[in-house]
Write a structure and sequence with these properties.
mainly alpha; 2 helices
């Protein structure tokens, strides 16, 4: 785990649950934290 802000948690707060599936979420989080 890196020390950056928790992008996944921020996105879950911003977007409704179920908007992304887990695979999409992992890919998006990876892109945003690169």
């Amino acid at each position: 785990m890196n020390a950056r802000p928790d992008v996944r948690a921020m996105l879950l707060q911003r977007y409704p649950a179920g908007l992304f599936n887990d695979a999409e979420f992992e890919a998006l989080a990876r892109v945003l934290t690169d």
